[in-house]
Amino acid sequence: MTFFESIRTCFTKYADFSGRASRPELWWWVLFVVLASMALGVISHKASAAFTVLTLLPSCAVTTRRLHDTDRNGWTQLLGLIPIVGLILMIVWCTQPAKEPNRFSAQPPAQG
């Protein structure tokens, strides 16, 4: 999955918490959100904050789908709210390869 395919997919599945997401889909999306937020922050902090709010739901959705790909429930992303340890857990879980068989979907997501 390319950078632009990932962005298009995440906006298309804006609030879709079902299914699975590949590693590239999540990490290209994270890169897009960080870069766009930084660029908007240079222009206006309000624009950056508005962008962050607008991309919060698709960010949660793609993270949930990525956790589904590793055979974890989407609610486990709430552990990311624990300072330091939660962030480390989320990074480790989201970088793991897909687990097969998987209870969330019979078909793994397209890798690229």
Summarize this, please?
The chain has 112 residues and is mainly alpha-helical. The chain has helices spanning 3-12, 23-43, 45-54, 56-69, 85-95.
Describe, in plain words, how this protein is organized in 3D.
The chain is mainly alpha-helical and 112 residues long. It has one domain (3-95). The chain is 59% helix and 0% strand. The protein contains five helices and no strands. The protein has helices at residues 3-12, 23-43, 45-54, 56-69, 85-95. Helix 2 packs antiparallel against helix 4. The longest helix has 21 residues, at 23-43. The chain is globular and about 45 Å long. 22% of the residues are buried.
Rounded Rg:
14 Å
The major β-sheet equals: none
Q: Indicate the mean pLDDT.
A: 92
Q: What is the 3D shape?
A: globular
Distance between the termini: 4 Å
SSE series = HHHHH
Uncertain runs: none
Number of domains: 1
The count of helical stretches stands at 5
Range of helix content: 55-70%
What class would the helix/strand composition place it in? mainly alpha
Give the oligomeric state. single chain
Strand content: under 5%
How many runs of DSSP E, i.e. beta strands?
A: 0
Features of this protein?
globular; single chain; 0% strand; mainly alpha
Task: Break the fold down into its secondary structure elements and pairings.
Layout: H1 3-12, H2 23-43, H3 45-54, H4 56-69, H5 85-95
